[in-house]
């Protein structure tokens, strides 16, 4: 039986994985096919109508042969005339060998001889990926979610060097993330998020550059640490802060005690300084309270005119 904490963590991980898969599945890579599809239908209908019109003009009627000929001509026209959207690069093969890269705009191929092998979308792509229960260098399982921004800059390499460049980029990013987490401790992963982003970008870029793909940036979205470890780390941080506070307080007490020792040495060598300090403290007490202070007879002598004149003479003579 799983306790409530473990059950909650598993449900959270399941939701994160489902969110990443849903995010990746919602990437609409069919957008670039709407325009070419409409254009292909237009070409097919136009050629079909022209061939039927030509057959009717020549023979005065339409038969089955003209109908089959119109269908064949329309099919051949759709295989020969194409358009590529502004963000697309099209890789064309001739008899199974690489021929050229076309697009955007109108381009032509030889029916049955040349084929469109790949339509590469050169817009910035966004891929969500993560690492579930990956062990850090100090053997702590953590969950990390990240986002990868990348684009295809060489359609030929994306077609020839890798089978499915989109899935390959996602798998390369996941592998790089797991390797980076395994080399760092849990505290380093939590604190050095920017450094981890930069490290992942460099590693993924090195792996995907041979596929004609460049990585623009990698961003860590979330780092989930087990609840038990969060409590331990919080207690450790609090203890560290309390330790620093006590050290600062000890340094302050040390400075204060040194100053008090210096003051005591001065008072010990000069009795007049003690009396003046006593008078100053009494004055501050009366001034702050606004009332009266009862001065013992032993201290009252210090306030007489003779004592004040003596104190002034002592200050002037430097005694």
TrEMBL record:
Matching Gene3D superfamilies: 6.10.250.2090, Band 7 domain
Transmembrane segments annotated in the record for this chain: 37-58, 64-85
Domain of life according to the entry: Bacteria
A Gene Ontology term for the protein's cellular component: plasma membrane
Pfam families documented for this protein: Band_7
Domain Band: 79-237
UniProt entry keywords in alphabetical sequence: Membrane, Transmembrane, Transmembrane helix
Keyword check for Transferase: no
InterPro entries reported in the protein's UniProt record: Band-7_stomatin-like, Band_7, Band_7/SPFH_dom_sf, Stomatin_HflK_fam
Membership in a protein family: Belongs to the band 7/mec-2 family.
Entry protein name: Slipin family protein
Organism name: Adlercreutzia muris
């Amino acid at each position: 039986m799983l306790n409530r904490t473990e059950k909650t963590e598993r449900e959270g991980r399941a939701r994160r994985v489902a969110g990443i898969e849903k995010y990746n599945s919602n990437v609409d890579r069919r957008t670039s096919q709407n325009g070419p599809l409409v254009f292909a239908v237009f070409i097919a209908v136009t050629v079909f109508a022209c061939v039927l019109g030509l057959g009717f003009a020549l023979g005065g009627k339409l038969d089955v042969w003209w109908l089959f000929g119109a269908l064949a001509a329309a099919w051949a026209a759709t295989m020969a005339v194409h358009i590529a959207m502004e963000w697309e690069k099209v890789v064309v093969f001739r008899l199974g060998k690489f021929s050229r890269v076309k697009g955007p705009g109108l381009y032509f191929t030889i029916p049955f001889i040349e084929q469109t092998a790949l339509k590469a979308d050169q817009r910035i792509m966004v891929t969500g990926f993560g690492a579930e229960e990956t062990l850090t260098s100090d053997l702590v399982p953590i969950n990390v979610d990240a986002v990868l921004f990348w684009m295809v800059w060489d359609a030929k390499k994306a077609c020839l060097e890798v089978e499915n460049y989109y899935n390959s980029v996602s798998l390369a990013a996941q592998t790089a993330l797991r390797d980076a987490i395994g080399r760092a401790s849990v505290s380093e992963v939590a604190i050095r998020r920017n450094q981890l982003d930069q490290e992942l970008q460099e590693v993924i870029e090195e792996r995907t550059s041979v596929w004609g793909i460049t990585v623009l940036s990698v961003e860590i979205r979330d780092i989930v640490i087990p609840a038990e470890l969060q409590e331990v780390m919080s207690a450790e941080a609090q203890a560290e802060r309390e330790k620093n506070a006590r050290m600062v307080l000890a340094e302050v007490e040390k400075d204060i005690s040194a100053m008090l020792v210096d003051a005591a040495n001065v008072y010990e060598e000069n009795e007049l300084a003690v009396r003046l300090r006593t008078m100053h403290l009494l004055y501050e007490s009366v001034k702050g309270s606004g009332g009266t202070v009862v001065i013992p007879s032993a201290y009252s002598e210090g306030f007489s005119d003779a004592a004040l004149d003596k104190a002034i003479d002592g200050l002037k003579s430097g005694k």
